[in-house]
Amino acid sequence: ISEHRGWTTDRKILVIESDDWGSIRMPSREVFNTLLKKGISVDKCAYNKFDSLASKDDMELLFGLLLKYRDKNNNPAVITANSVIANPDFKKIKQSDYTEYHYELFTETLKRKTDNSLSTWKDGIKNKVFYPQFHGREHLNINRWLKFLRSGSKELLTAFEYELFGISTTISKENNPSFMAALSVDNENDYESHSKIIEEGYKLFTDLFGYDSKSFIAPNYTWHPMHEDVLSKLGVKYLQGTSAQHVPLQGDQQKNKYHYTGEFNSNNQIYMVRNCIFEPSSNPNKDWIATCFNEIQRAFNKNKPAVICSHRVNFIGSIFPENRDKNLKLLEDLLKKVIKKWPDVEFMTSDKLGELIEKGI
Question: How far is CA 224 from CA 65, 92, 191, 217, 273, in A?
Fold first, then answer.
């Protein structure tokens, strides 16, 4: 239904949205091997196997590739890098016996864990190939996580020792709920704590990057209309997502609410829906170039912008370098194919697309 509704354009607009930048996820190859030995099936989920903080190499290789491919206005291909601003401060949380939450800025995590720094990020911004937008303060459901740590979840406590919080539900042997859906709700109090977290995270984002984030995407596509009100007051106008918004109900339940690109909510915020997928890390056997290219073609045939979903995990090589190298090659081949087929393509960030929709251009 949704693809026939909403905003249309004759322009060939291509947006690449990439989530999870800044989040620690799997700290290192060493931790990956250790947890595997301890019986946690981290090899069975792409995010636990490949995803980590981006190294300097990861970013420079990605930037170099994007700079090579230009649109009709001579703009390079650009990634809207949906970023979380903080990670848990594991040391302080442990000192409090898991009763208090403390965080560190992702820039501090970068210093501790990688050879990378905010200046590499800012190079990407300056060269117009990498444009951070707000993805939350952290990619973690704090209250739920602390509760399960206090209740003695063996799996979580083992992972905690190695600074890993994100064990995917697909590999949890304890049948634990999702800890990655930061805005999922367990009780009434969560709404209030989420408001504070969103407000604080947004201010930290602005302080770090020196500009406001006009768009937002909720971790795991899970958010409540109440969160939209909080974001609206902060100046967020555009809500990225897939066609289904997972609206949290108390106790890890949720219901789906469906959206289309160009739909307005009661705050006059605009929903923008991803209609193309490029996630080679999730399934190396699939022909991602062909499937994503077909989705782009379908979007353009329907006079829609092509909004590609491609998480950070696809571009990370610090744990398995071949993950990054193979996927960058695929991305390059896809961009070549797109430019050849549509020389009038326009590469754009999510907020720029939002502005066009808002102006009704």
Answer: 37, 30, 9, 12, 17
Give the residue from 244, 240, 237 showing the smallest Cα distance to 268.
237
The 10s digit of each residue's pLDDT in 183-229 is 999 988 999 999 999 999 999 999 999 999 999 999 999 999 999 99
Pairing outcome for strands 263-264 and 270-273 = antiparallel
Distances (CA, A) of 215 to 159, 176, 212, 240: 32, 31, 9, 7
Residues 123-150: pLDDT tens digits?
Answer: 999 999 999 999 999 999 999 999 999 9
Q: Give the whole-angstrom CA distance, residue 221 versus residue 86.
A: 19
pLDDT of 1: 47
Give pLDDT tens digits for 44-87: 999 999 999 999 999 999 999 999 999 999 999 999 999 999 99
328/334 Cα distance (integer angstroms): 10
Q: 257 burial class (0-12, 13-18, 19+ CB within 10 angstroms)?
A: middle
Burial label, 273 (beta-carbon count in 10 A; 0-12, 13-18, 19+): buried
Check: pTM over 0.90? Answer yes or no.
yes
Tell me how far apart the alpha carbons of residues 164 and 201 are, in angstroms, rounded to a whole number.
21
Cα distance between residue 359 and residue 343, in whole Å: 25
At 3 the pLDDT is 56
Residue 268: CB atoms within 10 A of its CB come to: 9
**Residue 196: CB atoms within 10 Å:** 11
Would strands 253-258 and 244-249 be described as parallel, antiparallel, or unpaired? antiparallel
- Please report how many Cα atoms fall inside a 13 Å half-sphere around the Cα of residue 23, on the Cβ side: 30
Residue 297 identity (one-letter amino acid): Q
Question: Looking up tokens 């939209």, which residue turns up?
Answer: 228
Whole-angstrom Cα Rg for the chain: 20
